[in-house]
Automatic annotation (TrEMBL):
Name listed for the protein in its UniProt record: DUF4142 domain-containing protein
Signal sequence, start to end: 1-27
PANTHER family, alphabetized: BLR2558 PROTEIN
InterPro entries referenced in this protein's UniProt entry, alphabetically: DUF4142, Ferritin-like
The species this protein was found in: Streptomyces lavendulocolor
Keyword terms of this UniProt record: Membrane, Signal, Transmembrane, Transmembrane helix
Residues of the DUF4142 domain: 38-172
Amino acid sequence: MTRTHRWAATAFTCLALTGIAAGPALASAPADGSAPATDAAFLRASHQGNLTEIAAGKDAQKNATTDCVKHVGKVLVRDHTKLDAATRALADKQGVDLPVAPSKEQQETLADIMSKAGTKAYDAAWLTAQAAAHEKTLARIDHQVAHGKNAEVTAAAKAARPVVAMHLDMVRGGKCHAAAAPRAIHAGNGGQVATSLAADVPVALAVPAVALGGVLVAGGAFWAASRMRRHDNR
């Protein structure tokens, strides 16, 4: 295992131990058919994406060199924390087990960006990665809207779309456009999930205390991993 992978593994082990996610990484759809494969896959991928954006946003607030990127990072943490609260609640209702951490590719991308902490290269790499990630997320949302079988999951996808689209506008083309961020999330028409996302309430009211603690500790783990890297390179 390379040093980069060891740092990523350390950080994401912390994610699992603090209860930021629930269930095994590879879980099958429930036997009762309440969440078809397409819908279950969407919920799992959404959860992994939210974990990644929360971690990336927290890291940007610490290690970005420009106020614009720091601000965008703060917005990502705010919005994806709320999105993930809705995703977790819906997954629990549908009986879908969620992964304990982002995908291997997402972990490696985060580790690569953190290796540039405190430099201008960090901001450029962070913005480029966020643009690519949010483009993929929009494509996944559109696929769910077009092909999803579960009405509630599809409604959640519709509710999340304007939020993700706004994020993409902030980082489109690998450039920072902080002015694209409104002060509150404006979600689409997605039923109860949309109502939850649209409400601009404190994170502490939207996310269970354990999950919020996991997010905070995970952010510290990524910071520590970055410090380990810089120490090893001396």
